[in-house]
Amino acid sequence: MPPPVTHHANIIHAGMSGAEAANLIAANTDAIQLSNAAGTAYRAGRYDEAILLHQQALELKLKAYPETSIQAAISLNGLGEALLGAGRLQEADDAFAKAIAVRERAGPVLDAAATRENIGALREAQGRFGEAREVRVKGNKKKQILCGNYNCPTNKMHALRGLQACGNCKSVFYCTKECQKQDWVKRHRPLCQAHCAKAQTSNTSNTSNQQAAEETG
Q1: 6 CB-side CA count, 13 A
Q2: Which 3 state secondary structure label does DSSP give 174?
Q3: What is the pLDDT of residues 139-161, one digit of tens each?
């Protein structure tokens, strides 16, 4: 059985001295400031800086919360995003795995949907497009799929029928044509084109092999 998910303002108990409690509260405050700075660095494309800041924030949070807490999951998800941006895919996979384990048990559901979408983007970067689609549609039954555009202005969850899939790979979904266009330009295009080119080459090779076998048969 996985350890329980915890969500509390901080872990301060009667056995703590005043100084210990004050240090714990200060660590929490510092972690929030570091997380905010990490978000700023990420949006500016300074991924290595964002990684370091998220790691520092997580280290501070773990003084107050267990790794299975919602608070830790926030930093783990942010860390995964920065690692993905930096192309450190296996490390991103590890961070997202820890984040989604918490968020799918304890929510909030929007946070769980966000991490599933992040994992979908990671699977694309890994060339695993079938798995990208699979993790995204996991939220369909409860209408908890996010638009594939990271900067979607609505940030609302949807059922699959309310979204439109990429016409090429069918592995990522958007709430509007504008969101699809933005993600195509910013992120999805090279991944999708490489995937489709590989699939086309594979299909051509299989067809050629089949024709050769028929000719010699």
Answers
A1: 13
A2: strand
A3: 999 999 999 999 999 999 999 99
